[in-house]
Amino acid sequence: MSPIPTIPLGGSASHIHIGRVAFGCMGMSWAEPSQQTPDKQAFETIKAAVDAGSNLLNTGAFYGPPSDPYANLKLLRRFYDAYPEYKEKTILSVKGGTPIELYKAKGMAGFKPDASVANLEADLLGIREQLGTDQGGKEIDVYEMARRDPGKSMTETMYNMLSLSSETYTDSNGNKVTGKGLFKHISLSELGLASIKEAVSVAPIAFVELEVSPWELEAYTSGIVDFCSSQKIPILAYSPTGKGLLGQIKTTDDLPEGDIRRGMDRLNSDNLSQNLKLANEFTTLAKEHKPEISSTQLGLAWLIASSDIMVPLPGTRNADRAKENAEAASIELDAETKNKLDEKVKEFKVAGGRYNETARQHSALWG
Question: What pTM value is reported for the model?
Fold first, then answer.
């Protein structure tokens, strides 16, 4: 039994329940090798998260530097090799869909989503190889394209993904077929409402992964949250603390050298002081909460309270913080606190856009 509240995944994965706070693994490896999280620390953190109820682990085929794109998958393989009992305890979600060789050669400039069957199959085979899936390693429970391929309709993309999944489905010719079984369930990432609706009309969707935080509310204002709620499809809210604005970052010096967040608009020296004003509102109310909680926990609890399908997806390298994050799922906000936060967030003027200009050019947001 989970120590925290859970939610069923959507579509054909509705028999799977995940904790109302998931765990993002990206930050452990998306850096140069000297700055990546040591195995002992990473393993302790992952175990702490899962043991506290965050049983969905989110990773990616490119969650490493261009010199070693598979760094995160390699880390997870070492984790599962060391603790094989956690293969059954966890739901592994893997993001992919971009040709790895392009990413190796050009970095983010080579981040070009390709939803062709050939690329998706090559991507999945590469992921399975890194995880050791065919040698008894962890299965790919959920697979998603990190971004939409602008050259293909969502209908074509979904049929291509279905053909490689374990799903039995009716193809575009009306025939009932079963996919190749390279992964189990389909999820979506970084899509707009129209794309999500089109995808849902074709394939069963386990969840939708989007950036959602007090500083990023487009999922609400665009109608995505309401639609996903009506379809009983959870939203995994990545960067739910505003990439560290809640509780961790006070100045740009708090970001280590080489941390990718140093190049993000909302955390640069021009915008940070403005964006911290909203973080301070959470800090004040967190101290007033009985018992006192952290501002991060309050932010996660606020997101959960904002919708019946919202699942925050924080990441951390610290075992105690991973446990603390998971425990936020059990915090019930009183109406007064929730309403105060709703008002503060609604009125706040966020400084800076998502990521930075380079990322916005090379990566389709809300595709």
Answer: 0.94
Q: Which two tokens stand for residue 160?
A: 């291509």
Is the residue at 366 inside a domain?
no
What is the number of other CB atoms lying within 10 angstroms of the CB of residue 231?
A: 15
- 210-219 residue pLDDT tens: 999 999 999 9
Residue with tokens 């993001």: 95
Question: What are residue 229's phi and psi, to 5 degrees?
Answer: -65, -40
CATH value at residue 150: 3.20.20.100
Quick check: helix, strand or coil at residue 102?
A: helix
Residue 362 maps to a domain: no
Q: Is 338 inside a domain boundary? A: no
Q: Give yes or no for a contact between 75 and 28, defined as CB atoms under 8 angstroms apart.
A: yes
Distances (CA, A) of 123 to 39, 62, 81, 143, 362: 25, 10, 22, 10, 20
How many domains does the chain fold into?
A: 1
User: What domain range is 16 assigned to?
Assistant: 6-242+294-332
Helices (H), the chain: 39-51, 71-82, 86-89, 100-106, 117-131, 154-162, 193-202, 218-221, 224-230, 272-288, 295-306, 319-327, 335-347, 357-362
Distance separating alpha carbons of residues 131 and 86, to the nearest angstrom? 14
Among 32-41, 204-213, 288-297, 356-365, where is mean pLDDT lowest?
356-365
